[in-house]
């Protein structure tokens, strides 16, 4: 049966993401990605020279989006801690599947090159937006807890949170942001 889609690069990224989420980045081969698409490995190599190049291509939109979010927050006069955390939560949620697929695989993190330093840079810039240009060591430690926890919650959780883990209409974004504000030792409202 002939293939119906025409954007092979997008199909490769989609299939790779599914396999990375299922098996992990390290355990997934380019052969498995090609087989999942019903194309030859040579056809896959036509689009991506290596698994690392494929991952870099998949990560680029997330990096661009995160950088844009942080830059826009920095340009916003009088930005509040709540708005900073909400905007960052939303950015991470948009790329949650990709985060989840690679963050648990330390080998993938090594293949990401500048991604880990970029995440630390964002955290530092968000910290300064919340606490000012010269945050204390205490504030830095709280930011690690708050921003890291917010990021993890945005990646791993569903859209709604219930007492038994099922959705009951509770806005998870609000719950997470309020928790991050408390972790920063700031008022939740």
From TrEMBL:
Pfam families: TetR_N. Keywords: DNA-binding, Transcription, Transcription regulation. PROSITE patterns: HTH_TETR_1 (PS01081), HTH_TETR_2 (PS50977). The keyword Transcription regulation applies. Coiled coil: none annotated. It comes from the Bacteria. Transmembrane segments: none annotated. Residues 29-48 bind DNA. The keyword Transit peptide does not apply. InterPro entries: DNA-bd_HTH_TetR-type_CS, Homeodomain-like_sf, HTH-type_TetR-like_transc_reg, HTH_TetR. Residues 6-66 form the HTH tetR-type domain. This is Helix-turn-helix domain containing protein. It comes from Nocardiopsis endophytica.
């Amino acid at each position: 049966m002939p293939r119906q889609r025409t954007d092979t690069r997008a199909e490769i990224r989609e299939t790779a993401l599914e396999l990375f989420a299922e098996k992990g980045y390290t355990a997934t081969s380019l052969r498995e990605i090609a087989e999942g698409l019903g194309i030859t490995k040579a056809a896959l190599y036509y689009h991506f020279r290596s698994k690392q190049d494929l991952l870099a291509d998949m990560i680029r939109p997330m990096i661009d989006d995160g950088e844009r979010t942080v830059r826009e927050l920095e340009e916003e006069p009088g930005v509040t801690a709540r708005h900073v955390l909400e905007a960052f939560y939303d950015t991470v949620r948009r790329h949650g599947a990709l985060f989840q697929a690679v963050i648990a695989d330390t080998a993938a993190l090594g293949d990401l090159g500048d991604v880990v330093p970029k995440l630390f840079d964002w955290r530092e810039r968000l910290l300064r937006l919340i606490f000012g240009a010269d945050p204390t060591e205490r504030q830095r430690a709280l930011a690690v807890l708050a921003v890291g926890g917010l990021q993890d919650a945005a990646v791993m959780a569903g859209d709604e949170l219930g007492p038994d883990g099922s959705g009951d209409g509770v806005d998870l974004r609000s719950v997470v942001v309020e928790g991050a504000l408390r972790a920063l030792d700031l008022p939740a409202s």
